[in-house]
RNA-binding protein YqeI
Amino acid sequence: MLTGKQKRFLRSKAHHLTPIFQVGKGGVNENMIKQISEALEARELLKVSVLQNCEEERGAVAEKLADGCGAELVQVIGNTIVLYKESKENKEIVLP
């Protein structure tokens, strides 16, 4: 689990990122979880945007993605979800 201080740090790091995945009408599926897991391994921190036509709640989408990828949910703000997972090979972010 991340502490409040670590989440604040990650939010500041994520601020300038643009969402690279979108969850739409189909919701969360296995393929999306696999792709996001690979992207998290490469980047450690990423944003996912939830589109207007998504039928699931943003919070539920965030939980599914975090659980499916084994990632930490940093924040859900508006229609954007920020996820963090420590990379095994390309560790770049050092948490406070």
In short: The chain has one domain: 4-79. Residues 30-43 form the longest helix (14 residues). The mean pLDDT is 92.
